[in-house]
Request: fold
Amino acid sequence: MSAQPLLTPVKLGRYELPNRVVMAPMTRSRAYNRDRVPTELHAEYYAQRASAGLIVTEGSQISPQGVGYVYTPGIHSNAQIRAWQKVTAAVHARAGRIFSQLWHTGYVSHPDFHDGALPVSASAVNPRTKSFTPQGLKDTVTPRALETREVRAVIQDYVQAARNAIEAGFDGVEIHGANGYLVEQFLRDSSNHRGDEFGGSIPNRARFLFEIVDGIADAIGADRLGVRLSPANTFDVPADSDTRVLYDFVIGALSSYGLAYLHLREAQGDLSAIPNMVQNVTAHYRTVYRGTLITNTGFDRERGNAVIARGDADLVAYGVPFIANPDLVERFRAHAPLAQADKNTFYQGGARGYIDYPPLQAEAA
Reply:
């Protein structure tokens, strides 16, 4: 049997990976403590999945200001760093590689997380979505626009979080610039109405992201840095007035940084009714981005092998399949069926639906 492209080695930044199967970042809401510290459950969960070529953790807040969901861990305190050290050690003990995803939710938050204070964003624009609070889902509110000096402080929070991640033993970090969170709120003119150097033109709106990239690259090395973007996203942030031109500029400029990778989310659904949106994200941006490219969203084994074989992507990130299949790489190798995840335990349940999915060998026993 010829080798599956997914199962061939690849270089990513300074690392040689044994395969091209990436565990995508997924919020699982298991940090059941007031300090948002990872637990022994996190260590076991990620270690079980260490056969992935690369693990990207769930989004981890760069500061208390970045919190927007219940029970999500951070990467800004000493206690969090110490707890993540146990997670990275468990993954490395099984020869895995793991990056920390750096996260600030921006306006996708609620005053309940901030002692009654407003969440912050690029501008005072209410996304009119829901925030997952300790009391359940609540309507978002109109956030407070960050002052220019505060924007620069948030940039430094990202840089310090990257340093913290390396201290915690992570192999690198990924900037979460997708899914309607703070970076994307700055990028799009639908949510960024600023009049300073971080608003207005596309280069100005992209300045927030690029100053974060510059700072982290200087702090830990560009070859330990990835960026995740969602050019076709319309969830929690409306389309830009010219989304294609925006992301062509941003992704083209990222090519010059020598990043470990660019991580793109594919479109979800038909976007033909939205002007200037890219439907086939990976194929389009392969022609724009010169570097290692990870694609994500909606791939199975066959489509993953095909997208690599075509040369459109270098690696494929899998989300939900990794929840129920800690040995996803081994199942792909064996052409084995995949277990189905219990959606009721995606964001709750402790060990249940988190570390109790059996590997293929146990299923067959």
Observations:
- The chain is about 30% helix and 15% strand.
- The domain at 5-364 is CATH 3.20.20.70 (TIM Barrel).
- The longest strand covers residues 54-61.
- The chain has one domain: 5-364.
